[in-house]
Design goal:
The complex is a heterodimer of chains A (271) and B (259). Chain A folds into 2 domains: 2-203, P-loop containing nucleotide triphosphate hydrolases (Rossmann fold), CATH 3.40.50; 210-271, no CATH class. Chain A has 8 helices and 12 strands. Chain A has helices at residues 41-48, 71-74, 92-99, 108-117, 131-145, 161-174, 212-218, 257-265, and strands at 2-10, 16-25, 29-35, 56-61, 77-80, 149-153, 180-185, 197-202, 205-211, 219-224, 234-238, 241-247. A 6-stranded mixed sheet of chain A has the order 5-6-7-3-8-9, with helices on both faces. Chain A is globular, with a radius of gyration of 20 Å. The longest helix of chain B has 38 residues, at 93-130. The two termini of chain B are 26 Å apart. Classes of the chains: A alpha/beta (271), B mainly alpha (259).
């Protein structure tokens, strides 16, 4: 479980990024962390993984304080950062052989399966791979560690369209019931139909923390050529008319995350 | 809790990863340095014709290698991406620290002397091939680092040299946890500036308040109640405390490291 209470954080010589931020994420969820550029999504993941220390408040992950960076904590959390790093001359095979023993729950069969699915050559040196291939490998490695908490920072950046679909399929298919997957992205479409919970961070606070199914039941998005006719919460221009977000009592369970995000960022409050 | 500070199996896994993950790069770099060094010696022999103490520059090589090896500790800290990777590896801060410290010391006191033996003996063999007519002039005929005596004659001098060297090693090691880019230059500049300022201040005080000290170290020692040996022991004790402080400081810098 991730529990954050009254978190304050800011980089030196910059404005405060998080003010009294509270957050709780229970085990067994794939959560999308959405926000505008500079809202602090990556910083929040770095705070959770112990790479940064909060200026105030408490972060507890599986009852450990991240910044202490105890091995028992690091074995059970894996951060896939946006800027990847691999040792210069390591191949996939070599990397797994040497790093996997540090993750006690590492599942070699799972790693092989995902690597095969991503069509990666295990003998190829990582530094000679494209950014997208490196990204696919680190996602495969992260899933194979079976860490309780997986933090994925912009995981779909650099992936081509088929790989984006494959990424969703692999993540949905390979995670365990008690894992938390927190996916930070500004490309909302890339996590649609994958996440079961949505967090939106803006202005130093979490401004939305809801499960997607209940949002899909309570709100709907329709395309209309005559926006004025509807009692809507939010509308925006779309090809063929307007996309309109409105309340409903008989939602389908699905929700257009992009328009939902835009609505919330523009001040619409969802009950 | 002790298990979270040090665990033999985890430390072995971490050491194996750190040592072997870039083995190709390390191997090529070492081989390249050996070949380059052999050629530099062989061609300097060809130019200088200095056959009797050609190995004398190994002392300088050792000092340069020491500075480079120690100041390249915590290589991950040179880049933000590698720092993130390093800090997230599931090993304790203590294990990461111990690995860095002991791998550098091992490289310095085991690997570098072995490389010097190798370089020395390859040089002798290569010289025999390309300068056969003059090879009988080359001394020594077999090379060991011990054939080049860098240690002082007295036991006290040796102890002083070792402690002084360890002080330099420890401050450079601490510097690698503080400075992201060029830790060798920055540590030497930073530490040199502090030492310079303190020395200048002490000299100023001496001039104004303690004219009896003006005879330099000898005058200072004569004016005190302690003899030369006692002052030497106090200085070495001071240096030992400095070494311990530097090493402790490096550990806490690692522990508190953020990106």
């Amino acid at each position: 479980m991730i529990q954050i209470n009254q978190l304050n954080f800011g980089y030196p010589k910059q404005d405060i990024l998080f003010k009294q931020l509270d957050l709780r994420i229970n085990n067994g969820s794939i959560t999308g962390l959405l926000g505008k550029n500079g809202a602090g999504k990556s910083t929040l993941l770095k705070l959770m993984s112990g790479l940064l220390a909060p200026k105030g408040g408490v972060i507890e992950i599986s009852s450990y304080t991240p910044h202490h960076r105890l091995p028992v904590f690091l074995e059970d959390i894996f951060l896939v950062p946006e800027e990847l790093f691999f040792p210069a001359s390591a191949s996939i095979k070599n990397y797994i052989k040497l790093l996997a023993p540090l993750y006690p729950k590492f599942d070699h069969a799972k790693a092989d399966r995902i690597i095969k699915e991503f069509e990666l050559d295990t003998n190829k040196q990582l530094e000679k791979m494209s950014y997208g291939q490196k990204k696919k490998f680190i996602i495969a490695f992260a899933l194979a560690t079976q860490a309780k908490i997986l933090l994925l920072d912009e995981p779909s950046n650099g992936l081509d369209i088929p790989s984006k679909l494959l990424f969703k399929k692999v993540v949905a298919g390979e995670i365990n019931d008690d894992q938390i997957v927190l996916i930070s992205t500004h490309q909302v479409k890339d996590v649609e139909n994958l996440i079961d919970k949505v967090l939106i961070v803006d202005g130093g606070k979490i401004i939305l923390n809801k499960d997607t199914f209940s949002l899909g039941n309570s709100y709907e998005v329709k395309l209309s050529s005559q926006a004025e006719e509807h009692d809507y919460l939010y509308k925006e221009v779309a090809p063929g008319g307007h996309k309109i977000l409105s309340k409903t009592e008989h939602g389908s369970g699905d929700i257009d995350l992009e328009i939902l995000f835009n609505a919330v960022i523009n001040g619409v409050t969802l009950s | 809790m002790l298990h979270q500070i040090f665990n033999t199996k985890r430390f072995a896994n971490y050491s194996k990863y750190s040592l072997l993950v870039n083995w190709r790069k390390k191997l090529f770099l070492t081989a390249g340095l050996i070949i380059a060094y052999v050629f530099v010696i062989v061609f300097s022999l060809k130019i200088n014709r200095n056959y009797n103490n050609w190995e004398a520059n190994t002392g300088i090589t050792f000092i340069v290698a020491s500075l480079i090896i120690i100041s390249s500790a915590f290589p991950a800290f040179r880049k933000k991406e590698s720092t993130m990777h390093f800090l997230c590896i599931p090993a304790s801060n203590f294990e990461k620290y111990i690995y860095e410290l002991f791998s550098r010391l091992t490289a310095l006191f085991v690997f570098v002397p072995l490389m010097m033996i190798l370089v020395g003996n390859i040089t002798i063999k290569l010289h025999a091939i390309i300068e056969a007519s003059r090879h009988h002039l080359l001394e020594p005929r077999y090379y060991t680092p011990l054939s080049f005596d860098i240690l002082p004659n007295s036991e006290k001098g040796t102890i002083a040299l070792i402690i002084f060297s360890l002080a330099i090693i420890s401050i450079l090691f601490a510097g690698t946890t503080v400075f992201r880019k060029n830790p060798l230059i920055k540590t030497l500049l930073f530490f040199g500036s502090i030492t310079g300022v303190i020395s200048a201040y002490v000299f100023y005080i001496t001039q104004k308040l303690m004219p009896q000290w003006l005879g330099g170290t000898t005058g200072f020692i004569k004016s005190s109640n302690l003899n030369e040996d006692q002052w030497a022991y106090i200085s070495l004790a001071g240096l030992t405390i400095f070494i311990l402080w530097s090493l402790t400081y490096a550990f806490f810098k690692l522990k508190e490291k953020e990106i």
